[in-house]
Structures are given as structure tokens and as C-alpha cells.
Design brief:
By secondary structure, this protein is mainly beta. The chain is built from 1 helix and 14 strands, in the order H-E-E-E-E-E-E-E-E-E-E-E-E-E-E. Strands 1, 2, 3, 4, 5, 6, 7, 8, 9, 10, 11, 12, 13 and 14 form a 14-stranded antiparallel sheet that branches. The chain is globular, with a radius of gyration of 19 Å.
């Protein structure tokens, strides 16, 4: 079986919906506050999802070239993105340059600056660590900073008995919006490719399940935590950076909010339930 060595963070591509604990927010805060935060989170996570897809794309292409496979894999990068590679001490380092004028992906998101990725040239190891960082990189005007480390392995898990790609992500990143507000993200995510891993060159049949937890620090210094209660399901055929199902529990000032992404529809909708009141949310990228 041909095995597709993808990794996404996911992290993002992984959705991190944070909960807040604030001295400035009273215990009877309205549901609107929670839904507003979910919308902000979805914008941040969409940025990180695009980055993860780009890095995953380049990893797969380099692996395919190194193996001298005859299979043709089309990159998701637009022609305006320039990629250069170096091989030093057994490690590949690739720089993806989107320029300073703006380089649009097929989904319409506009990127600027550079992403640098590094991983071993030995693709036969049981585990492989991949890192990436940023240099003047923006996504739809949001500046992305920090580093990400992903451990890629092939194994059986509670979510899928068959051996499949599993990507364990450690996240420490900062996102600055155009208005100057700054958010930081730390945490751990496990992203499992549960479908599509035996069709190496086809993106659209990939399905991922994501679990984990993390902490977000907001512009006013509030520390916020989130926990994925039901694995988030991402279907690449939907061509959206949002899960089609799964739930995330938010806790703010001891008030719980459950974010629910639905039952499998390819849309940008979710619901947030706080104190028995449910609100429908339109996620943003």
C-alpha cells in the first residue's frame, strides 16, 4: 500500500476555539461575547489551516521527488509562490516566498512573506519531526509569527485500528490582526488521517480527525482554555478550513459554552450553547 505522509497541523488546520477567564468580564456575560470570540478564532484558525496545507503539500512533493516516483503530484501553490531547497547535513530546508505584493491561493486568501520548513531527508524512519517558521509572513493581512513542531508517525490508535498517519503537533504561535490586536496560541493537537492515506496523489479524498487542547492569550492578557470533546472531522473535499462535525468545550468564568460543528455538512456554520441558549455562528476565514 502506498502511504501518504501528510502532516497538518493542524493546528491548526486544526481549529482552536478558546475559552476566556477575564477579570473584566462579569459572570453573567451574554452569549454574544462567546459567539464573537468563536468568529475571531475561526479567522485565526483559517490562516493556520492554509499554512499547514502549504507545508504538507511541499513535504509530500519533496518526498515524492526524493523517491524518484513517476507519480505526478500537483502542488496547491500558485505560480506566484517561489520555492527553493537546500540539503545540509541530511536535512532538507525549503523556503516558500510569496513576495511582498500579495500572492493569492485558489481559495482567494492572499499571502505575503516567507515560510521556511525543515525535515530529515530520510523518509524511511518510523517517526519524523518537521518544523516551520515565518519571515514577514501575512495571511489576509494578519501577521503570523512563531514556530511549529510536528511529529509524524504511522500507527494504530483508538480512532482507527488500521495503521495510518498520525501527526502530533506542538504549537507556539502569535497572530497580529491589522488593527494591532495580538493573540498567542499554545497547546498540543493530534491530527489523524483516517481516510485517503492509501491514495498518495489525491487530496480530495483525505479525511482527518483532530483531538487535543490548548490555551489562547488575548490582547488584554486574558488566559483562555479549550478542549476538544468530540473529535473534529475535516473533509478535504469540502475545500473549507472548518470541521464538518465535532465539538469543543469552552469555559469562561466557570460558565461552559459548547461549540458544535454539525453533522457532516460542508458549510461554515456552527452553534454555541451557553446556559441552555443556542446561537448559530457563521465562521470566517
Amino acid at each position: 500500500m502506498k502511504t501518504k505522509f501528510f502532516f497538518i497541523a493542524s493546528f491548526m488546520a486544526i481549529v482552536l476555539f478558546a475559552s476566556c477567564t477575564s477579570n473584566d468580564t462579569p459572570a453573567n456575560s451574554t452569549t454574544a461575547t462567546s459567539t464573537d470570540q468563536v468568529v475571531i478564532d475561526s479567522k485565526i484558525d483559517a490562516s493556520i489551516d492554509d499554512v499547514s496545507n502549504i507545508v504538507e503539500d511541499q513535504f509530500l512533493i519533496k518526498q515524492n521527488m526524493t523517491s524518484k516516483s513517476s507519480e505526478i503530484i500537483k502542488s496547491i501553490l500558485p505560480a506566484c509562490a517561489k520555492v527553493t531547497w537546500t540539503l545540509v547535513n541530511g536535512n532538507f530546508t525549503g523556503t516558500i516566498d510569496f513576495g511582498t505584493e500579495g500572492c493569492a491561493l485558489e481559495n482567494g486568501n492572499v499571502l505575503k512573506g516567507k515560510i521556511t520548513i525543515t525535515f530529515s531527508s530520510n523518509f524511511t524512519t518510523a517517526e519524523q519531526t518537521i518544523t516551520y517558521s515565518f519571515d514577514g509572513f501575512t495571511h489576509n493581512g494578519k501577521k503570523i509569527q512563531g514556530t511549529k513542531t510536528i511529529t509524524r508517525s504511522l500507527k494504530s490508535t483508538d480512532l482507527l485500528v488500521a495503521v495510518h498517519p498520525v501527526f502530533t503537533c506542538t504549537v507556539d504561535m502569535t497572530v497580529t490582526f491589522e488593527d494591532g490586536t495580538v493573540y498567542t496560541r499554545t497547546g498540543n493537537r493530534v491530527r489523524e488521517m483516517v481516510e485517503g492515506y492509501d491514495t498518495k496523489g489525491n487530496w480530495e479524498d483525505n479525511v482527518f480527525l483532530v483531538t487535543g487542547s490548548g490555551t489562547t492569550t488575548f490582547p488584554n492578557g486574558d488566559k483562555c482554555s479549550s478542549t476538544i470533546k468530540t473529535p473534529l472531522r475535516f473533509v478535504m473535499a469540502c475545500k473549507r478550513p472548518f470541521p464538518v462535525s465535532g465539538t469543543v468545550l469552552k469555559v469562561r468564568n466557570n460558565i461552559e459554552t459548547l461549540v458544535d460543528f454539525g453533522t457532516g455538512e460542508c458549510d461554515n456554520l456552527a452553534t454555541a450553547t451557553t446556559a441552555g441558549v443556542t446561537t448559530t455562528i457563521e465562521l470566517k476565514k
